């Protein structure tokens, strides 16, 4: 479903990514891990079109999308969330999700502002769908509350619901449980599993090793802009280079 070939990018003298390649199958959960500064966010930005890489290609379901802008990639089914929460605090929970659906609606934002009748009908349908997405992430009961008043764990799930409203084929999650407590992490974990079971391909960057190792089908370890290893969580745990460069340090710190 997603194929990344030889992506590279430099910022001045810093080579942030150097020949990174990977493929992710439909419905797979693929995690990118690595120490601070390894290039995870930069890789996300290149794949989603926010950064223009110095070299390399990105394919979505076989089509070369390397030259497409982020919104064009989103229209083709590649949606991402951001590390820092990006919700509209002064809108309700359900309105936030409805905003996600707009990219597929006729008329766009101008028609909405003019309040055209066909758009109003669309609004009812969009709201129904948005409620279904909220239900899928377990927060439908909060639909008409203000988004800005919600707990961190709810907002993280709201972001996923809004991303689902764009009908993604590939969902890219940047640190989906950052700042969450154990209960909230378990809730987000369950949502991601459910989304993948529906056939959505999930790529995530996450620092919570316990969560990643339990959730991901495969793990891709980056170090200093290069691929250090790719494998199942079990393979990654046993990989000597990974232990030396990264996991050993993390697990020692955890202990
Ligand atoms: N816009 C930018 N301009 C200059 N340098 C950048 C830019 N974005 C990233 N870098 C550099 O590229 C390298 C990779 O950074 P990146 O943020 O992708 O790492 P990361 O693995 O996501 O780290 P973290 O886990 O801390 O989020 C770092 O050396 C960083 O300083």
Task: Describe how the helices and strands are arranged.
Blueprint: E1 2-11, E2 14-24, E3 29-33, H1 40-48, E4 55-60, E5 63-64, H2 70-75, E6 78-80, H3 93-101, H4 108-114, H5 117-136, H6 152-164, E7 170-174, H7 182-197, E8 201-205, H8 209-215, E9 218-223, E10 226-231, H9 233-238, H10 240-254
Helix pairs in contact: 3-5, 3-6, 5-6, 6-7
Bound molecules: adenosine-5'-triphosphate.
Residues 11, 14, 16, 34, 36-42 line the site of adenosine-5'-triphosphate (ATP).
Descriptive notes:
Keywords: ATP-binding, Nucleotide-binding, Transport. Residues 2-249 form the ABC transporter domain. This is Branched-chain amino acid transport system ATP-binding protein. With 255 residues, the protein is an alpha/beta fold. The chain has two domains: 1-77 and 168-255, Rossmann fold (3-Layer(aba) Sandwich); 88-165, no CATH class. It has ten helices and ten strands. β9 (218-223) and β10 form a beta hairpin. α3 (93-101) runs parallel beside α6 (152-164). The chain is globular and about 50 Å long. Adenosine-5'-triphosphate binds at residues 11, 14, 16, 34, 36-42.
